[in-house]
Specification:
extended, mainly alpha, 71 residues, 3 helices
Length: 71
């Protein structure tokens, strides 16, 4: 059984603080389709936030350290 109390509480607290909340739900289908639909939305959201903060969403400093690549 999934407990939906925590997500609801977090959403209410965010809304109470004036934060706009957008919920994304998975698409119907096989498990892989459902996970992919959520991952795609998360990828878009992280790119949007990075651009909004003036960052290059394609660069990952921690990953650069591992791969040896530099900007």
């Amino acid at each position: 059984r999934s407990d939906h109390g925590l997500p609801r509480s977090v959403r209410r607290a965010a809304e109470h603080s004036g934060v706009r909340v957008v919920e994304q739900h998975d698409r119907p289908g096989a498990d892989l389709v459902r996970v992919a639909s959520l991952a795609a939305m998360l990828d878009l959201a992280t790119a949007y936030l990075a651009l909004g903060h003036g960052l290059d969403p394609g660069r990952v400093p921690g990953l650069d350290d591992i791969t040896g690549e530099r900007a």
